[in-house]
Amino acid sequence: MPDLSGIVKAYDIRGVVGEQLDADLVRDFGAAFALLIKPEAPAVVIGHDMRDSSPGLAEAFADGVTSQGLDVVSIGLASTDQLYFASGSLNLPGAMFTASHNPAKYNGIKMCRAGASPVGQDTGLAEIRDTVEQGVPGFEGQRGTASERDVLADYAAYLRNLVDLSGSRPLKIVVDAGNGMGGHTVPTVFDGLPIDVVPMYFELDGSFPNHEANPLDPANIVDLQAKVREVGADAGVAFDGDADRCFIVDERGEPVSPSAITALVAVRELAKDPGGTIIHNLITSKGVPEIVAEHGGKPVRTRVGHSFIKAEMARTGAIFGGEHSAHYYFRDFWRADTGMLAALHVLAALGEQNGPLSELTSAYSRYAASGEINSTVDDQVAKMMAVKDAFGARSGVEIDELDGLTVQLPGGAWFNLRPSNTEPLLRLNVEAANAEAVQGLVDEVLAIIRS
């Protein structure tokens, strides 16, 4: 039996095309997915990003689905949140072909049940892997049919209906699509809004000729920062490759932390639904639950990852959730993540008042943070144990292992160290009262990790 553990991750499938992932294997994944959801739905909606390998892999997956007697609705080129919209609005399970921000040689599959309900290791992905490893059983009934449907305009209209920008002052916004799917969705979503969009890298190109489509890496927003300053824009927005994440810079070109965006959007959602529950993962700033509570909301802490966030939102009935990685989840969007909707909220908040974005977001930024620092390591477990041993012996230190290692220090500083679900990395996030304290703690932890 093949061992697929290297590509079947915690909440998606991802690997190097031609080495770990090819059409035959993807066809089997499609058939296995069809077997999983056949009792629940008559068809599967499929979308794909702009990578060269995506159309062929999506077609192979569709072939696997129809081979098991289910129909396929193809929406073609799409952002991941556009696929979630299709799954939610059509009430069908879905599959999105993308490797998000990973380099061009990668591709992958994000799957969901009807209503954009997540499929992760504990909710079907392990079962799909087992079925493919053991051999997909044949189906002797009639094959399913395949059809096409364009949902882009409906997706854009749905988002605009959730955030009212009609009263906004005119704004000039630079948008860096990173040659990813933001170049496909932004023109339609922003059409008719009081927003002058200055486009950057809107050409769809899965080789990412200008920079990696990962806006969390500071190197990848340098062009955006420069353009915002050059044209005197009110803000800048960067999307990742599949455009389900957005990253914001203010009018000075300075990054606005995803935690501040989480708090800002949470306050807006709580204004519509007082007393609602807000989900935040354990790496967001401790300012997020503080602000949520101050505005009458109920903050709930959870582990990192979209399938975990969505499951917790379903359990608690949460109205909104945010992650440090710039994923933002909305009850009104089938609890799915959509960077586009978060961006519209930020722009609406900006346009409702006359001050600059830096002033608006300063109220939501209470502490200094390191951002995510990655270290390539040979033995993730051993390095994490070394850090745990070093800090666990100290007086007043609290440690929990909800997701990786979270260490709370006396005085309020804290850090989280967790292994990547997709790469051989340890990810470090540090927060403290000021930048000097952050740097000191970063240096201390990295000295152990990289020794």
UniProtKB/TrEMBL annotation:
Family matches, as SUPFAM superfamilies: Phosphoglucomutase, C-terminal domain, Phosphoglucomutase, first 3 domains
Residue span(s) of domain Alpha-D-phosphohexomutase alpha/beta/alpha: 8-134, 154-253, 261-367
Keyword entries, A-Z: Isomerase, Magnesium, Metal-binding, Phosphoprotein
Co-factor requirement: Mg(2+)
Entry's Gene Ontology molecular function annotations: intramolecular phosphotransferase activity; metal ion binding
InterPro entries: A-D-PHexomutase_a/b/a-I (IPR005844), A-D-PHexomutase_a/b/a-I/II/III (IPR016055), A-D-PHexomutase_a/b/a-II (IPR005845), A-D-PHexomutase_a/b/a-III (IPR005846), A-D-PHexomutase_C (IPR005843), A-D-PHexomutase_C_sf (IPR036900), Alpha-D-phosphohexomutase_SF (IPR005841)
Protein family membership: Belongs to the phosphohexose mutase family.
Membrane-spanning parts: none
Alpha-D-phosphohexomutase C-terminal domain location: 372-446
UniProt GO BP: carbohydrate metabolic process
Domain of life: Bacteria
Classification via Pfam families: PGM_PMM_I (PF02878), PGM_PMM_II (PF02879), PGM_PMM_III (PF02880), PGM_PMM_IV (PF00408)
Lineage: Bacteria, Bacillati, Actinomycetota, Actinomycetes, Pseudonocardiales
Protein name from the UniProt record: Phosphomannomutase/phosphoglucomutase
